[in-house]
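Per reviewer request, we include the raw input and output of the structure prediction for the construct analysed in the revised manuscript.
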Amino acid sequence: MKSILFFIVFSFSIIGCKKNISNKTADISITKEQPIVIDTVEVFKKELILNGNKGKWYYKGKPFNGYSLKFYPNGVLEEKWGFYNGKREGIAKRWTRNEKLQVESYYKNNRLVGAYKTWWENGVLSSESFYENGLKQGVEKEWFSNGQLSKLRKFVDGKENGFQKAWLENGKLYVNYEAKNGRIFGMRRANSCYKLEDETIIRRKKL
């Protein structure tokens, strides 16, 4: 009899735990960040008013939610920016007078996030960098208009960190240094015969 009673009590305790777990799971799902939906409204950029103190753009006295458009004198679209609650949000693009995509970036709450890309007039990628909460992070690359790599830089929290390199269009390395702890080791115009050892620049040993 005691065994049966213990089994019943134990079963109810398991059911109660499951209910608590399911309730906690439901609470977690509710608190997840909801996706931001930008209104499809489009207005001329010149009709927006920026309040610099609040960091918000207003349209007819209210924080703007939608897209701003800017055109060249010939009627070609120059810029398209997204806004949510008066702040820059989502994708932002700029085109040349010849309708070629020139810049593409993304914003969240007025700050750059994700990939930032630029293009040459011929459609070749000109530069690519990445942002987190408005700060440049990771590898940044730049190319000549023929697609050849011209610069390779590394960033942590918006500051150069690690080896930084740049090449001439003939492929010759002309910038080669390391940024570390806010200091630069190497020469801004140098070959690759130097390296950093214990924060001292030494000539590379020949093999």
